[in-house]
């Protein structure tokens, strides 16, 4: 659990972060969203003390971050940034092993951990361990960047627009992968982004920031349905808000369960992990009224109907 | 029809090679050590027997240099031509001396030196076209140096005036050691001072604004003036503190040479350190700090390794520069190959000058190649 209390940061008497207080529960994915210069990156960098606050307090599991030397604190917190910042003179293995080595892990543990992380991010160990960063694609580099941040099993991962420099397709893949890994490991993530779509898709809780303050902190659904007037309303209240709402839920959450074989054979099917927006898109494309939902093995486990989908995106 | 692929570089170089070899004097026959000599062309100097290895090699190399194919064969042929040329000049000298008076000397002349130059360019061109990796490149250079040294020590060139001068000097190898001591002896302190100074300048722009003008001015002082300027304070020191004099700190000798070269070495090392550190991606540094590296760990694990190729480039500049400058240090009694150059100039004995100049050149060249190899290995194919 991360607790931020009355956090302030002034640069040359200009408030970058102004009296910020919020909580992120353990295992939650928290997004700080705002335009550039709103103080979101500054807030993030105060958590691992890359920037020292002017006043206020940050507690991680009730322990004040200033109670540890900054280096020791940072080794316990994962940190991934836009542009990755992989060490160009070190192999992928050495890059991922950085923090474990700083912590003095033994060689066997490091080997096992690097292999485990590469496998987790679907990178073949034998192919990638010995390569150098410049031999990898942008998406692969960013995967390694996240793997490196997770190397010493941190409970908290800080990410500063990690997917900002990637092409849309790669970005989407990596978002899905990060969500999968987060669910698997149960870590807490605080991520900074200016991309509302990314925030709505991934976050458990979104904090919208402007001029150094949090204007609203809510679940994606609550934020989209009940934005506060002013900045937040402008940010989330566009015409596509219904479609954004549909990206939050997966078909498995709204489907009605079905016994195998009761669906007409011509019905199009969709994977249970797909979000509702993509499901709607498929319905439109196929001229269909309903979709069969299949699990990873390909067995039909349920169905969603057009009306149910549309209902999810409607105002309440 | 398959188009004829003319190699412009190879064509130019081989034309220049043939032109220099046949149109300019190959050796000169001097009545004695210092009298001006009589120029002799290649065909007059060498009899058919001594030309046998050279001419076919020349023809083959020149023909092969016209096309862009078979670069590997061309490289081997060029090397063989180089060795044949050195063989021919040695053999011709022995021939010519048989008929001459006992004091006569044979000196190498323009056509020989130019031919060596063009052959070296042909070899370099071939090495570039083959895109030789650092280690094979070093091996090639080692091969050439070994071949030349074998030829020189075999006695085959002993009729040449250059080797006569060499045999007259009993201290050639101790001067060689001295030369290296002076040039490297000034660089090691310059590295120990220059790199930390460079790191500090990188961190503090105000320090950089103070240090760089000073180093720039030091760099512009002519070397002779620098030796002269150092002589006075050093001799004053030596007379006031006899202990220093016993340690070798005197107005003349090694002390002013090493100190002057130290000053000259600072600018390239400091500026390249600043450059190397400045080129590091700030994202990499942010990641290093964000992952929990201390300032010291970041410096040694990330910054130094990444800046090292650039720092080494500065180091290479300094090494080649100093090996050349040490030659001047002979004027203030520093010793080294410069001693022969100045003796030769005084006695108008050209070959003694060459005995000092050629090894200086060779040393500088060898060190440059070795450091280049090191830089390439450190970069490991990184952009």
UniProtKB/TrEMBL annotation, chain A:
Coiled-coil region(s): none
Name of the protein: ABC transporter ATP-binding protein
Family recorded in the similarity comment: Belongs to the ABC transporter superfamily.
Keywords, sorted A to Z: ATP-binding, Nucleotide-binding, Transport
Organism: Zobellella aerophila
Residue intervals of the ABC transporter domain: 2-236
Lineage: superkingdom: Bacteria
GO terms for MF: ATP binding
Gene3D superfamilies: P-loop containing nucleotide triphosphate hydrolases
A Pfam family hit: ABC_tran
From TrEMBL, chain B:
Membrane topology: Multi-pass membrane protein
Domain of life (superkingdom): Bacteria
Compartments where located: Cell membrane
Domain ABC transmembrane type-1 stretches: 176-376
Transmembrane regions listed in the UniProt entry: 45-64, 76-98, 110-131, 138-157, 177-199, 211-234, 254-278, 299-317, 323-342, 354-378
One Pfam family linked to the record: BPD_transp_1
Keyword line: Membrane, Transmembrane, Transmembrane helix, Transport
InterPro entries for the chain: ABC_transp_perm/SBD, MetI-like, MetI-like_sf
Family per similarity comment: Belongs to the binding-protein-dependent transport system permease family.
Name listed for the protein in its UniProt record: ABC transporter permease
Source lineage: Bacteria, Pseudomonadati, Pseudomonadota, Gammaproteobacteria, Aeromonadales
């Amino acid at each position: 659990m991360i607790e931020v209390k009355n956090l302030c940061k002034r640069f040359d008497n200009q408030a970058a972060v102004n009296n910020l207080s919020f909580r992120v529960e353990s295992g939650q994915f928290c997004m700080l969203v705002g335009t550039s210069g709103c103080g979101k990156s500054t807030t993030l960098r105060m958590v691992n003390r890359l920037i020292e606050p002017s006043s206020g307090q940050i507690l991680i599991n009730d322990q004040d971050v200033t109670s540890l030397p900054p280096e020791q604190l940072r080794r316990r917190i994962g940190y991934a940034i836009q542009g990755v910042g992989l060490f160009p003179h070190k192999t992928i293995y050495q890059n991922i092993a950085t923090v474990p080595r700083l912590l003095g892990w033994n060689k066997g543990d490091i080997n096992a951990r690097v292999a485990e992380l590469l496998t987790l991010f679907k990178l073949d160990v034998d192919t990638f361990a010995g390569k150098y960063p410049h031999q990898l694609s942008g998406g692969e580099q960013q995967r390694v960047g996240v793997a490196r941040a997770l190397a010493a099993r941190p409970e908290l991962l800080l990410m500063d627009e990690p997917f900002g420099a990637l092409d849309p397709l790669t970005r989407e893949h990596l978002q899905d992968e990060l969500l999968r890994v987060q669910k698997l490991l149960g870590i807490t993530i605080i991520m900074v982004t200016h991309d509302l779509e990314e925030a709505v898709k991934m976050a458990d809780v979104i904090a919208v920031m402007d001029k150094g303050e949090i204007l609203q902190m809510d679940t994606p659904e609550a934020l989209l349905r009940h934005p506060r007037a002013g900045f937040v309303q402008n940010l989330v209240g566009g015409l596509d808000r219904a479609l954004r709402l549909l990206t939050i839920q997966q078909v498995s959450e709204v489907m009605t369960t079905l016994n195998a074989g009761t669906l007409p054979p011509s019905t199009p099917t969709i994977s249970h992990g797909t979000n509702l927006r993509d499901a709607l898109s498929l319905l439109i494309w196929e001229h269909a009224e309903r979709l069969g939902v299949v699990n990873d093995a390909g067995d039909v486990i349920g169905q969603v109907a057009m009306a149910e989908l549309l209902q999810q995106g409607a105002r309440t | 029809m398959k188009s004829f692929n003319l190699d412009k570089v190879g064509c130019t170089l081989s034309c220049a090679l043939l032109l220099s070899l046949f149109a300019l004097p190959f050796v000169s026959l001097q009545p004695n050590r210092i009298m001006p000599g009589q120029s002799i062309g290649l065909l007059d100097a060498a009899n058919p027997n001594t030309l046998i290895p050279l001419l076919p090699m020349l023809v083959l190399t020149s023909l092969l240099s016209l096309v862009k194919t078979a670069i590997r064969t061309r490289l081997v042929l060029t090397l063989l031509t180089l060795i044949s040329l050195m063989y021919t000049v040695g053999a011709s000298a022995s021939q010519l001396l048989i008929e001459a008076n006992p004091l006569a000397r044979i000196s190498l002349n323009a056509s020989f030196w130019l031919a060596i130059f063009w052959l070296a360019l042909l070899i370099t061109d071939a090495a570039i076209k083959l895109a030789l990796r650092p280690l094979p490149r070093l091996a090639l250079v080692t091969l050439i140096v070994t071949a030349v040294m074998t030829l020189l020590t075999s006695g085959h060139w002993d009729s040449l005036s250059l080797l006569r001068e060499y045999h007259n000097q009993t201290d050639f190898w101790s001067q060689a050691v001295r030369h290296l001591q002076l040039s490297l002896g000034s660089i090691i302190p310059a590295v120990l001072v220059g790199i930390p100074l460079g790191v500090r300048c990188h961190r503090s722009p105000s320090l950089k604004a103070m240090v760089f003008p000073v180093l720039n001015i030091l760099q512009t002082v002519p070397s002779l003036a620098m030796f002269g300027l150092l002589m006075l304070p050093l001799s004053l020191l030596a007379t006031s503190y006899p202990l220093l004099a016993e340690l070798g700190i005197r107005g003349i000798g090694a002390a002013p040479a090493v100190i002057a070269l130290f000053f000259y070495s600072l600018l390239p090392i400091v500026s390249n350190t600043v450059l190397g550190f400045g080129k590091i991606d700030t994202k990499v540094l942010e990641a290093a700090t964000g992952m929990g590296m201390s300032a010291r760990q970041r410096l040694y694990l990330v910054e130094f390794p990444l800046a090292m190729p650039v720092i080494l480039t500065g180091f290479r500049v300094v090494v080649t520069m100093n090996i050349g400058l040490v030659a001047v240090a002979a004027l203030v009694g520093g010793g080294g190959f410069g001693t022969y150059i100045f003796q030769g100039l005084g006695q108008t004995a050209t070959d003694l000058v060459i005995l000092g100049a050629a090894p200086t050149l060779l040393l500088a060249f060898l060190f440059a190649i070795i450091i280049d190899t090191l830089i390439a290995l450190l970069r490991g194919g990184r952009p």
